[in-house]
Design a protein that fits this description.
- The chain folds into two domains: 74 residues, Winged helix-like DNA-binding domain superfamily/Winged helix DNA-binding domain (Arc Repressor Mutant, subunit A, Orthogonal Bundle), CATH 1.10.10.10; 56 residues, Ferric-uptake regulator, C-terminal dimerisarion domain (Dna Ligase, domain 1), CATH 3.30.1490.
- Helix content is 32%, strand content 15%.
- It has four helices and six strands.
- The strands form two sheets. The chain has a three-stranded antiparallel β-sheet. A three-stranded mixed β-sheet has the order 5-4-6, with no helix packed on it.
- A hairpin with a 7-residue loop joins strand 2 and strand 3.
- Helix 2 packs across helix 3 and helix 3 crosses helix 4.
């Protein structure tokens, strides 16, 4: 990971202990929930409210430093892999989430049959299945 302080400055953000800790937690726990990120940040820097972590996550998403994905029926997940329009594979049983590189074509990997006048900038694809750890062994 590039130096977190540099990343924040490059996106026009002040460098704070909270934001640095959140960036490190997201890097260490890709696809972590806000609650998991908050636990990690609290264990690193001690006293911090969950709301402060949520606010930092929101700011980092808004500024394009991290990405939030929101699978149907699941809490939001955060990752620092941005800008490549990759997809995700999620286990329906345990929620394990892994990155899937774009399978075909250029960004956005899929082409809509009709764009209805929109300029399409991104496509979000989630593959659902059962991971090897949750699948019954034959």
């Amino acid at each position: 990971m590039t130096d977190p302080s540099t990343i924040l400055r490059d996106h026009g953000l002040s460098v704070t202990a909270q934001r640095l800790a959140v960036l490190r937690a997201v890097a260490a726990c890709p696809h972590g929930t806000a609650d998991r990120i908050a636990e990690m940040v609290k264990s690193e820097i001690g006293s911090i409210s969950k709301q402060a972590v949520y606010n930092a996550l929101g700011t980092l998403v808004e500024k394009g430093v991290i990405r939030r994905i929101q699978p149907a029926g699941s809490p939001a997940l955060f990752e620092n892999r941005i800008g490549d329009n990759h997809h995700h594979l999620i286990c329906r049983t345990c929620g394990k989430t892994v990155d899937i590189d774009c399978a075909v074509g250029k960004t956005p990997c899929l082409h809509a049959s009709h764009h209805h006048g929109f300029h399409i900038e991104e496509v979000e694809v989630i593959y659902w299945g059962t991971c090897p750890e949750c699948r019954p062994q034959d």
